Amino acid sequence: MKNLTELPEWQALFAHHQEVANLHLRALFAEDRSRFARFSLESGELFLDYSRNRISSETIKLLTELAEAVQLRQKIEALFNGQPINHTEKRPALHTALRDKRHTPIQVNGENIASIIAHMQQQLHDFVDNIHSKTWKGVTGKPIKHIVNLGIGGSHHGPQMAIHALKDFAVSDLQFHFISSVDKAHLNDVLEQIDPETSLFILSSKSFTTIETLTNARTILAWLRDKFGENVLKHHFVAVTAAPEKAIAFGIPKENIFPLWDWVGGRYSIWSAIGLPIALMLGNKHFEDFLAGAYEMDQHFRQADFSKNMPVLLALLTVWYLNFFGARAQAIVPYAHRLRYLVPYLQQAEMESNGKCIRSDSSHILYATGPVIFGEEGCNGQHTYHQLLHQGQHLIPVDFILIGKMSPSANDHHHETLIASGLSQAQALMRGKTFDEAYQELIARHCSPDEAKQLAHHQMIPGNKPSNVLVMEQLTPRNLGALLALYEHKIFVQGIIWDINPFDQWGVELGKQLLPQIIHRLKHMHTEDETDCATEGLIHHYKKIQDRL
Ligand code: F6P
To answer: Is residue 352 flagged as an active site residue?
Structure first.
C-alpha cells in the first residue's frame, strides 16, 4: 500500500483540517440546532452522541473516504473470515468466531473451528453446572465457594472487569478473587480471604509460560499440598490454555483443562474459556447473552455504512485527533462504579494492539499511532485530572460512558447526580468559559474591576475540547458484550488505517527475555555476566537493603 500520508484522501483531510481547526464547538452548536441529531446514532442498546467533536459533515465524508481508500471493508471481511491478518505470527484473529451464534464453519489449519468452539462451550457449560449444583467437590468433600483467577494481562483484565461490571446479575453466591502480579502481598491478601477447602483456582494462561502466573500457581499449589497432600490438583485446579501439554506437565489432569487457541489473542480472549469466572458468576444463560451482545455489534460493524458505523466512526475520530490535531492521549471515563476496571481492560486492548511503529511492509511509521489511554471512573476523575482536560496544554478527547438505568437500589438521586456530572463535564469541555463570562461573574461577586480583570484570565476556560458520550441503556451482560466488541473493532479499524498489525505484541517480549537474567543476578551476585551499570547499581543497592534487613 502507498504510504498513508501520501494518499489523496489523507491530503484532503490535511487541507480540511487547516480550514476547521480554529472553529469553536460553541459556535458550531449555536449555528446548528440539528447537530445532535446529525451526529448521533444507535446500535442495539448503545447510543453514541459524537456531536461534541470538532467536525462537520464534510469531515465525516473525508474520513470515511480514507477508510475506503485503505480497503477497510475488505479488511473487515478478512478479519471475520479467518484470513491470516496477524501476519507477523501467520495466523488469523478469530475472537469473533467465539461469539458467532450461527457457528459459521471456518477452517484453520485444516480444522473447522466452529465445532471445536462448540465443544469448548459445552465443556464450560457442564463445568458451570457442576460447580453450581455443588457436584464438584474440594479434596475434603466440600463444595466450592471461592473462585481464584490466576492470570495476567488478557488472562486477567477481562474477567476482573466483567465480574465487577455484572455483579448485579450473579446467580450464585460464589466469591471471586484475582491474583495477577507476582507481588506476594497480593497473594497473601487473597489467601487470607479464602478457605482452601472450598477454593477453586483457575490457572489462566494462553502460553502457560507467563512467569507471574506460574510463580503464583506454584506457591498456591505448595500451600494446598501442605494442607491436604498430593491429591489437590484434581479438585482445586483447572487451567485455561493453548498449551495443554504444559498444563499436564504442571500436574493438571487433562479433563480439568479448557482449550484456547493461537488464533485468539490474549487481550481478545474474554469470549473464550478465559471468561470462565464470568460464566461461573452469571450462569450459562447470561454468559450466552454476553456473547450475543458482542455478536450483535459484530453484525453492525460488518453491515453498517461507515458513516453510520459506531466502531468505524469512533476509530476515525481517534485518527482525526491523533494524526491531524496531534492529540496523543485519550481519556475513557465511565460514570459507573461497576465499570471501574474498564479502563485497564481498554488500556491493554488499545495500547498493546496499536502501540506499534512498523508498517505491514516492515518500514518505519512516520505518523503517530496508538494514543495513550487513561481514565478513571466518574466522578473521581473530576477531582483529580479533569483540571488538565479543561485548562491544560494538551488536547485530550474523552469518551464518557453513561448507564441509562441502574438496578433499582442504585437508580435514585445518586444516579441522577452521576449522570448530570458526566453531562456537565462534556458540556464544560465543549463550551468552556470566555474571559468576559469569567469577568462578569467576578464583578457579580463584588470583585473590583481591576481584580476581576486579573482573575478572569485564570478563570476563563478555552473549551472546544472534544468528547463522545456513549449511553448504555442498562448495564446488562448483553450490553457489556456489545460495548467491548465496539472497542475491539474500533481498535482494529485504527490498526488498518495506520497499516499496523493490531494482533501481535513483540514489544512485550523483550522484558520477558531480560527478566530471567536479572533474577539470576539477584540470586547469584558473583556471576560473570554483568548487565549495564544502571541495572548493576540497582542490583547492588537492592542486595545491600536485603542484607540490612
Ligand atoms: O502482556 C503480554 C501478554 O503476552 C499479553 O498479551 C497476554 O494477555 C498476557 O501476556 C498473559 O499471557 P498468558 O495468557 O500467555 O499468560
So the answer is: yes
In the predicted model, residues of the chain with pLDDT beneath 50 are none
- CA-nearest of 479, 509, 490, 480 to 270 is 480
Task: State pTM to two decimals.
Answer: 0.97
Which pLDDT score is estimated for 72? 98
CA-closest residue to ligand 1 atom 8 = 154
Do 4-69+304-423+469-504 and 111-288 agree at the fold level?
yes
Q: Which three cell numbers stand for residue 436?
A: 468576559
Of 352, 376, 377, 488, the catalytic one is: 352
CATH class of the domain defined by 4-69+304-423+469-504: alpha beta
Indicate if 413 belongs to the active site. Answer: no
Q: How many CB atoms lie within 10 A of CB 59?
A: 20
Cβ 484 vs Cβ 270: under 8 Å: yes
Please report the pLDDT score of residue 549 as a whole number.
Answer: 74
**Residue 477 has what pLDDT?**
98
Domain 111-288 in CATH 3.40.50.10490? The answer is: yes
Where helices occur in 82-237 by DSSP H, the ranges are: 113-132, 157-165, 184-193, 211-228, 232-236
Res 541: pLDDT: 94
Confidence at residue 526, expressed as pLDDT on a 0 to 100 scale:
67
The domain locations on the chain are 4-69+304-423+469-504, 111-288, 432-464, 508-548
Does 394 participate in catalysis according to the annotation? no
Q: Is the beta carbon of 35 within 6 A of some atom in ligand 1?
A: no
CA-151 nearest atom, ligand 1: 16
Q: Looking at residue 411, what is its pLDDT?
A: 87
